[in-house]
Amino acid sequence: MIDKPSFDTIFMNLASDLARRSHCVKAQVGAVLTKDTRIISIGYNGPPAGTHNCDEEWPETGCPRDARGSCSLALHAEENAILYAVKNGADLQGSTLYLTLSPCLPCARIIYSSGVKRVYYKSSYAKYKGLPSDEGVDFLNKFGVIALQAGVEST
């Protein structure tokens, strides 16, 4: 019998590959939005298409920072994936989102509102930002969206 990777593994690997497409000089994040083992949309972090390429315009420093020290120009990977899917009429109710970095709280609200029911993430946004907790993950789990770190069993 052939040993086949799970769809979770395949989609997380794709999200990791997509992250490498990002023009951000600070962090590269990828997203894959799926439903019933089919890809609905993909995304990676960066400014809206046709505006800036941070690695070309600000190769040493990255784009200007906002008051919290975050990128002032970029859409997050999950925002890009969800926006593209919605723009093209996809039904996201019951879908699954694979992310290389857990969602921030604003993205968690978008994920919840769009109808996504499961989120699998590779690394912690809180750890990356030096925050005490993953507020986005906590929000999703509180309101019925399953949000789990890939490779970590829930208790």
From TrEMBL:
Alphabetized SUPFAM superfamilies for the sequence: Cytidine deaminase-like (SSF53927)
Database matches in CDD domains: deoxycytidylate_deaminase
Domain CMP/dCMP-type deaminase: 6-138
Keywords linked to the UniProt accession: Hydrolase, Metal-binding, Zinc
InterPro entries tied to this protein: APOBEC/CMP_deaminase_Zn-bd, CMP_dCMP_dom, Cytidine_deaminase-like, dCMP_deaminase-rel, Deoxycytidylate_deaminase_dom
Cofactor(s) recorded in Swiss-Prot or TrEMBL: Zn(2+)
Family: Belongs to the cytidine and deoxycytidylate deaminase family.
The protein's name in its UniProt record: Deoxycytidylate deaminase
